[in-house]
Known about the structure:
Layout: H1 7-14, H2 18-25, H3 29-38, E1 48-52, H4 58-66, E2 71-76, H5 79-88, E3 94-98, E4 111-117, H6 125-138, E5 139-150, H7 159-173, H8 178-190, H9 196-205, E6 209-217, E7 220-226
Parallel strand pairs: 1-2, 1-4, 2-3, 4-5
Antiparallel strand pairs: 5-7, 6-7
Helix pairs in contact: 3-4, 6-9
Amino acid sequence: xxxxxxxxxxxxxxxxxxxxxxxxxxxxxxxxxxxxxxxxxxxxxxxxxxxxxxxxxxxxxxxxxxxxxxxxxxxxxxxxxxxxxxxxxxxxxxxxxxxxxxxxxxxxxxxxxxxxxxxxxxxxxxxxxxxxxxxxxxxxxxxxxxxxxxxxxxxxxxxxxxxxxxxxxxxxxxxxxxxxxxxxxxxxxxxxxxxxxxxxxxxxxxxxxxxxxxxxxxxxxxxxxxx
Length: 227
Ligand SMILES: C[S@@+](CC[C@H](N)C(=O)[O-])C[C@H]1O[C@@H](n2cnc3c(N)ncnc32)[C@H](O)[C@@H]1O
C-alpha cells in the first residue's frame, strides 16, 4: 500500500478548476461519469450510497438527480474537495468523511451502492486487493459496486500507445504543452492503474459476482459488480 501522504495536498491544489480540468485532460470523462448511474438496473433504488474518492462531488451530483431520497456518504482524503462538496450539497442528506481509504473503517452490510470514479487508480494492485473484499462486506446483499477509471497496467505492452494517444488528446485542448507536462508528472507520482482482467479476478475472489464491463473506449472503462 503505497499511496503517498501528499495525495490529499495534490488534490487540494487540483480542486480549483477541477471539472473543467478533468473534461480537458481525461478522455471520455463525462461519459464515464454518467455511466455510473446509467448502467444501474431500472428497478434499483439505493437507500445508502458511498462515493469513494468523491472529489468535488460530480458523481454524487448525478446520482442525487436519480436517487434524491438516498443517504450519501462522501469519502475523500482531500479537505478542499470535501469543502466543495459541503457547499454543493448543503441541505442534502450527505455525510462527509475525510480519510484515506486505508484509514476508514468500512461498515458491514450497510451500503446499497458503492461508486468509485477515477479514484481507485491511485491505489496500487495491493491496495485494490485489500479494498475489494472490504467493499464487498460493506455492501448489503443485492448491493452494487460501480467503477469508472483508466484500466491498464503501466507495465503492459499497450501502455506506451495509450500514453501517446492521451498526450495528443491533452495537447489538442492545451496546445502549449504545459498541462500535459503537469499531468505526466502527476501520473508518474500518483497513478497506479491496473488491467481490467486483473481487477475482475480480484473482484471475483473478493466475492463479487456478475462483474461486467458496461462501457469502454480503449482502456477508459466502466464496470459494475454485484453482491
Ligand atoms: C481524480 S479524483 C476523482 C474525483 C471524482 N470521483 C470524480 O470522478 O470526479 C480522485 C479523488 O480521489 C481521492 N482519493 C484518491 N485516492 C484516495 C485514497 N486512497 N483515500 C482517499 N481519497 C482518495 C482524491 O483525493 C481525489 O479527490
